Amino acid sequence: MNFTCDPILPMFNGSTNLPNKSSDHLSVYSRIYDSFNDAVPYAMSILCVAISCSNALVLSAFVINKQLRTPFSVYLINLLVSDLAQSLLDLPFTTMGGFLPVWPLGRKACNFSLYGKWVYSAVVRNTHSLISFNRVWALFFPIHYKQNHTNATAIWLCVATWVYVHIWLLPGLIPDDLYYRLDDGSCQVNTTANPTWALPTQIVLYNSSVFVVAITYPAIWWKVGVRARMKTEFMHVRRDRSGLSRACWRGGDHSCSKHTVCPRT
């Protein structure tokens, strides 16, 4: 970033009485900003490899070990697949954009890149929402959850998430390619030209997942805490009753049963 054209600088440069400290500060900030921008593509390259390897490793565990394939693990597999797809089909293009100032691969490759950038990111976010709703279902309605949550249910919910994402995104991505995209050497969706699609999509498809997690996770933590306290109290009561029964038996009081509590002596 070049700060020499900042309109504030001539006010200080034109004065012979004031030290040129602001210009020095801006030069330092400019160097830091430029160094950060130069380092981002290299960090993205490392991140891309790390995410791809870690997701592939965990995903292979589900493929190899059949015991890990439970109805709930279907959501985790869906999350891993979308994460892996994003790291392989989105992050490399994002990294390339940090090294090159102009998109070099043409229109079709740009469409492919934008599809991966928007779709996989949305699927990842909405899968987190799906997992949150699943935990609420399991904790607050355990009987209904056990009766109705199967592998087929989880698979259909994950498929519905992908369909839901495409229903939101394709009506914006296709017109952008046909009518709105700027031929300025970049590769990005022209959201300014289509705000009636871009703003609702940003709120519903991307921001809503943050809201869902923020609302459901405190409820989940609260319910888990309640269950833990109930389990602890039950174990204490069971231990106390077991001790009383043994004491009554050793004392020869055969009137004590599992439905009655013998008095302590």
Automatic annotation (TrEMBL):
- Subcellular location, record wording: Cell membrane
Q: Where are the transmembrane segments?
A: 42-64, 154-174, 203-222
Q: Which organism is it from?
A: Ramazzottius varieornatus (Water bear)
- Database matches in InterPro entries: GPCR_Rhodpsn (IPR000276), GPCR_Rhodpsn_7TM (IPR017452)
Q: Principal place where this protein is found?
A: membrane
The reply on keyword Mitochondrion is no
One cellular-component annotation, GO:
dendrite
Keywords, ordered alphabetically: Cell membrane, G-protein coupled receptor, Membrane, Receptor, Transducer, Transmembrane, Transmembrane helix
| Identification of the protein by name | G-protein coupled receptors family 1 profile domain-containing protein
Q: Does the keyword Membrane apply?
A: yes
Query: Where would I find the G-protein coupled receptors family 1 profile domain in this sequence?
Result: 54-265
UniProt record, GO biological process: chemical synaptic transmission; G protein-coupled receptor signaling pathway, coupled to cyclic nucleotide second messenger
Which is one GO molecular function term here?
G protein-coupled serotonin receptor activity
Give the organism's phylogenetic lineage. Answer: Eukaryota, Metazoa, Ecdysozoa, Tardigrada, Eutardigrada
Membrane topology for this entry?
A: Multi-pass membrane protein
